[in-house]
Amino acid sequence: MTDQLSRVFAALADPTRRDMVARLTEADHTVNDLAAPYDVSLQAVSKHLKVLEEAGLVTRTREAQRRPVHLEAEVFDLMTKWIERYRRQAEERYSRLDAVLARMQDADDPSSTNPQEGTAS
Length: 121
Hints:
Elements: H1 4-11, H2 15-24, H3 31-35, H4 42-54, E1 58-60, E2 69-71, H5 74-108
Antiparallel strand pairs: 1-2
């Protein structure tokens, strides 16, 4: 996978990584903080973080003895634009389908046609 969008979606395909990202939306965390709720080794958590880093979703910095993990929220703009484009297309298709169904219903409903008024029988 060479494009960033593919790397981001692949990284978020794992539920543990999605949970880590969700926790990072609240605040930066250390690897130990991120590892706490999981029954896995620190090495496994580090591997998850490496995948998130390679996708551009997180960065690690150094603050004295701490190495906090920071969420790079700008990457979500890329995903949002991609999703939004297809959401708009789907909405347009559904709107056209609604219009067709409404016309079909009007054609089948005899009460929806207006009889001519003022004509003698």
